Amino acid sequence: MAGGLQTRPDASAHFSLATTDVDEARAFCRRMFYGPLEVNPVGDRSGFAFRGDVVSLGPITVGEISYGCDIHVAIADLETSYHVLAPLTGMLRSRHRGTTVLADETRAAVYRPVGDISLDWPGDCRLLSVKVDRGALERELDAALDQQVVTPLLLGDSFNVIDAPGRTWVALVRLLFGELRRGDGLSSQPRMATRWRDMVVSGLALTVEHPYGEEPAGMQGPNRPRTVKRTLDAMHAEPWRPFTATDLASIAGVGVRVLQESFRQHVGMSPLTYLRRVRLDGVHAELSRSDPWQVNVSEVAYRWGFTHLGRFAGAYRDRYGESPSQTLRDRK
């Protein structure tokens, strides 16, 4: 297996496993995606030959997965993520929130954070598995629309991947996956990788069906001025940077007071308050998916731009109702 712990939010990691051991495959998928996940072969398991190739970059995790024989997968609430399964070969039968979806090379299945998932996965099905941190996708829609969105997002159960925009989004994900797996292309440049990652998140917001209006993602809300959009882009691209109010005003091209007033009017809070929320969501997402034996809360907080651990811990508890160490200890 290749890869390792990320050292900063824009760092990528690559993991791979080929095995005929069911328990080893199950443990790999739990570590890469979700703890409450069960993988069980159906019938003859002699053909079981798991292959998993997974890359992660900030709030997204992309894997190419196959099992070699028929299996059944059961997953409890995803809680911290949205997820897309797009078969590259074969067909997958999916049940989620009372709806059955037959996903194949023409249609991808979509999963919300709430609701058990049941998958009948044939041996000939190889698929693209895309995990997007809940906060990242919700922030994207929240920033793009001039209205309050419901959380978890009311997303459609599937989308077409033969026609645009679904075809384009899957192609974008596959290209990013290939580049991160090789590690020697433009994606090896942190700034480029960050922009590419953000394109995957915003592209999903454009692709999947939702009831929040027809405005495109990418900060195109009609009542948000360009100065606010430019500042939001900068904060989401590099949330760990030690931005000051003056730095953000310079990025926006206006004075500090003008930017603060614009944010209060169009975002509902000051720029630095919004930046703190982005950082907190980033820490929460990382702690929620990390191994408590290998991750230190302080290191994660510093990576996301927090330099005063006492204030960080208080803000974290206010937002999530628990301490950072409890999130890490009680992760599922």
TrEMBL record:
Example of a GO MF term? sequence-specific DNA binding
* All residue ranges annotated as the HTH araC/xylS-type domain in the record: 229-330
Record flagged with keyword Phosphoprotein: no
- Keyword Kinase present in the record's keywords: the answer is no
Pfam families (alphabetical): AraC_binding_2, HTH_18
Keyword annotations for this protein, in alphabetical order, are: DNA-binding, Transcription, Transcription regulation
* InterPro entries recorded: AraC-bd_2, AraC_XylS_family_regulators, Homeodomain-like_sf, HTH_AraC, HTH_AraC-typ_CS
Q: Which SMART domains match?
A: HTH_ARAC
Per its record, how is this protein called by name?
AraC-like DNA-binding protein
The protein's organism comes out as Paractinoplanes abujensis
